Structures are given as C-alpha cells and as structure tokens.
Amino acid sequence: MNEMFQNRSATEIGELLQQSYDHWVHTNTRWLEVMTYDPKPASGCSPKELLWSKNKSKLYHYQASTPRRYLTPVLLVYALINKPYVLDLMPGFSLVEYLVNEGLDVYMLDWGEFEWEDRDLTFADLVYDYIAPSARRVARNAHSEEITIIGYCQGGTMSTMYAALFDRPILRNLVYLAAPIDFEGAGTYDVWLKAPGYDPDRIADMMELVPKDFIDWGTRMLNPLNNYWGTYTRLWKTIEEDKPINFWKVLNKWTKDNVNFPGGIYRDWIRDFYQGNKLIKNQIVLRGRRVQLQRINANLLALVGQKDHIALPHQTAAALTYLGGNDKTYQEFPVGHGGLVLGATARDNVFPVLSSWLADHSDLWEEANGNVHNGNGRR
To answer: Can you give the pTM of this predicted structure?
Structure first.
C-alpha cells in the first residue's frame, strides 16, 4: 500500500482510493446479484437419447458428432447423492463430452429423484433391477459382448457388487473414480458413523425416506468451513479478479441439487459398509447370493484424489488387493473428491489418463468393412 502512494500527489492518491472503492462496490454489488437474481446456468448439455427407463431412473445414450472409434461401450454409474450431470457439467468441463469426442460409445444410468414410494429400495434392487438391465441394454445397443463400467464414488461401490454377481455381458473394464471399497479408516465418517448410539436402523425406521437436506448437511459438515464459507468467498474473489463466473455458478447449482435417499439403502450403506466393512470381507449378500470380490476379473483402473476427504485414497486403493484379475492400474491426482471430474485438473490431466487407458483396453470399431480388431488392451 505504501508503494502505491509513494511519490504521488494528493490528487493522484485520491483518484486511486476512489478507483479502489468503486471496484470494491462493484464487486459486492455483482456478488449480491449472482447470489440473488442470476438465473441458473444450463448443465448436462451433451446430446443424448433415452434408451431405457424404470421407475424414476433413465438410461441415456450420448450422441456423437465424431466417428465412433471403439467397439467396447462405456456405462457411467453415478452415486445416489446429488445428480449425475456433474459428469456432464458444462461444455469444455464434461467427462461425457470428452469421452464421446474421443470416439467412445457412452451411456449413463441416471437414478432420478427418489420419492416416498421408493423408501424401501435396497442395494439388491439397484444392482439386480437397474444396473444389470442397463448393462444388458448397453451391450445390445452397442453390438458388443463386452462393456466398460465407470463408477463414481458410491456408483463404483454398487458397480463392484454388480461385477461380482453377473457374468454377462462380460465386464471387460472396471474404472473407479473416488470409489470406496474398504470402509476402514474412513476419516470423519468413522468418527460420526461409528459413534456409540449411532443407529442407522433407527434413522431409517423413523424417516423411511431420508430427506435430501439431511444428506446434504452431513456431507457439507465433513468440511464446513470450505463448504459454507469458502464457496461464497471464492465467488467474491472470482468477481474481484474479473474472471468468468459461469463455472462457479454451474458447480454451485449442482452442489445444491440433492435427492432424497431411500431408507432401505441408507440402512444398508451405513450398517453394512461403514460400520461393518462387509464388502472386503465378502459378507454382502444380495438376494441370496454372496458378493465375492475375487470373482471380478475385469481390467481395473482406480483414480483417486490425494485431498479427498469423502473417499480417502486408501479406500479405493484396496481394490487392487481384493479384486481378482491381473491388469490393475492405480493413480492419484492432487485434487479433492470432486476434482476428478470438475475443473482444469480433471479436464487437462484426469480425462486424458482415463481416455488413454480406455483406448488401450477396448476393441477398435472398424465401420468401413465391418471388421473388429483388438486394441492394445487385454481381455
């Protein structure tokens, strides 16, 4: 500040102070406008068609403007918290867009918004009645006997259960994006969910359909200063530095776009996974069939964020130990939970790594003569 005023006349100093004040007023005015009046930005913009639906859920097939290069289709399975358009957030920052432009045949299972009539759904229902039919339809639509599944966060956990129970279509590749497999040492979740007296059965019985605000509050309180205060100070700083705010707006829209959580699934998720860590113990049983992780022989890619406080890196890395198969790749990035699919690091580093790995582990599509040749990857 002293250097700013050094060797300047009183008039010049006054002008600088006025400019600084005007900029401060403008920043605060614009900040309030964004917070109160600005319309929500568009998201999930990649063109798609509805392939199949059940209850609230929809299976989408993304339409490409570039030629298809790979036979092996990709099915994206998202978590039950928030909405899956984070994987197609906005043009230029979209995992879906990136994979489609790389010539991959991309599909997404959108769970929809659970309501009162969905309160008794369990993981068995989601795996058997939603993921399994989606996988079959993806393979049939893509004219492929094999598929790739990319599971983000809880979507990776559910995809693991599916992979251990179903042999057809052949699961060639299983990709984890911050997907917890080992629930021991789960950070703040351990402190809360394993506390004496925390009873998921009581919560599920009382609420039946766990409200979206209850889930959102719990997630935000894992890092309250950043999620409540930091979110809005970042907006102020972006405006103050005269940078584009559209990415902040679409991300803020997504973080507040929550869904209700079926009580049956909440009960399973807390009791059997966080409290019992039953997945790596092969103690999860769905409709009379035991989920045995060593039965999964798909090629494995596990991508994690070093700063992730929701799914800690070791929780995903455990898949390399417990899953079967010989082709396993693990890589960390200097980001948090959302940073694997959001922002510049995701676009410039994570997406290329994922796309390159898929290219090496997928069959090539030769549309001209109808022949299919193996890629560089392994079956």
So the answer is: 0.85
Secondary structure (H, E, C), the chain: CHHHHCCCCHHHHHHHHHHHHHHHHHHHHHHHHHHHCCCCCCCCCCCEEEEEEECCEEEEEECCCCCCCECCCEEEECCCCCCHHHHECCCCCEHHHHHHHCCCCEEEEECCCCCHHHCCCCHHHHHHHHHHHHHHHHHHHHCCCEEEEEEECHHHHHHHHHHHHCCCCEEEEEEEECCCCCCCCCCHHHHHHCCCCCCHHHHHHHHCEECHHHHHHHHHCCCHHHHHHHHHHHHHHHHHCCCCCHHHHHHHHHHCCCCCEEHHHHHHHHHHHHHCCCCCCCCCEECCEECCHHHCCCEEEEEEECCCCCCCHHHHHCHHHHCCCCCEEEEEECCCCHHHCCHHHHHHHHHHHHHHHHHHCCCEECCCCCCEECCCCCC
Task: Render pLDDT for 194-227 as a digit per residue (tens, 0 to 9).
Answer: 888 889 999 889 889 988 777 666 666 656 666 5
Give yes or no: 308 in active site: yes
Q: Which of 216, 268, 308, 363 is catalytic?
A: 308
Task: Please pick, among 216, 337, 361, 363, the residue that the annotation labels catalytic.
Answer: 337
Confirm whether 153 is a catalytic residue. Answer: yes
Is 26 annotated as catalytic? no
Catalytic residue among 61, 88, 105, 153: 153
Tens digits of per-residue pLDDT, 10-68?
776 677 777 777 767 776 676 576 667 666 766 677 999 999 999 999 999 999 988 89
Arithmetic mean of pLDDT over the chain: 85
Q: Tokens for 21?
A: 């004040």
- Closest to 85 measured CA to CA, from 233, 204, 258: 258
Structural domains of the chain ordered from first start? 48-373 (3.40.50.1820)
> What number is the average pLDDT over the span 235-247?
66
Q: What are phi and psi of 372, to 5 degrees?
A: -120, 125
